[in-house]
Write a structure and sequence with these properties.
By secondary structure, the chain is mainly alpha-helical. It has two domains: 74 residues, Tetratricopeptide repeat domain (Serine Threonine Protein Phosphatase 5, Tetratricopeptide repeat, Alpha Horseshoe); 61 residues, no CATH class. The protein contains nine helices and no strands. The protein is elongated and about 55 Å long. It starts with 12 loop residues before the first helix and ends in a 9-residue tail after the last helix.
């Protein structure tokens, strides 16, 4: 899945075709027309069953529709077609964590980190999984890295800062 730095559109002809097939359904997702997006992506998959973008974006639409099991399966299908699909791997990590599979979430996030050590979204996934696992030092490390370099939206920043506040060691009375 080769993409140029100037454009998210893949430069490989097959990838470019796959990307073109999902552009309209992605717009539906952005416009919160999730049912229509799911139907459109399923049509893409019927026509182009080896399109990893279609499975990934189906996962996104299903996730946004609170269908975590189906989203998980879609991300796994994308990764079966393209094991280095970082976005699908990071999203799979989040879904597994939300389903209570913290071990699986950490495994997926670690694979993502090996693929792309400097990816802020991977740090976010690692931080949240470590936090859920009760490992505050590791969680704090990754979440602080994410805030420093990830440039998340304000809602995500507030969520991460809230988690960091809860992870902070309790203050001693003599520190007040």
């Amino acid at each position: 899945m080769a993409t140029s730095r100037e454009s998210p559109v893949p430069v490989d002809p097959v990838d470019a075709k796959y990307w073109e097939e999902v552009e309209e359904p992605i717009e539906l997702i952005h416009d919160q027309h999730l049912v229509e997006a799911v139907l459109a992506l399923r049509d893409v998959i019927k026509r182009s069953p080896r399109n990893p973008y279609a499975f990934h974006w189906l996962g996104v639409a299903l996730f946004e529709s609170d269908q975590l099991e189906a989203a998980r399966d879609a991300y796994r299908a994308a990764l079966a077609l393209e094991p280095k699909y970082l976005g699908a791997r990071v999203h799979l990590s989040h879904v597994l964590r939300m389903q209570g599979d913290v071990r699986g979430a950490l495994e997926q996030a670690e694979v993502a980190r090996r693929q792309q050590p400097d990816d802020p979204d991977t740090w976010h996934a690692l931080g949240l999984a470590h936090a859920q696992r009760g490992e505050p030092d590791a969680a704090r490390q990754f979440l602080e890295m994410y805030l420093a370099k990830g440039h998340p939206e304000i809602e995500v920043q507030l969520e991460v800062r809230g988690i960091l506040d809860r992870l902070a060691p309790p203050r001693r009375r003599d520190e007040d």
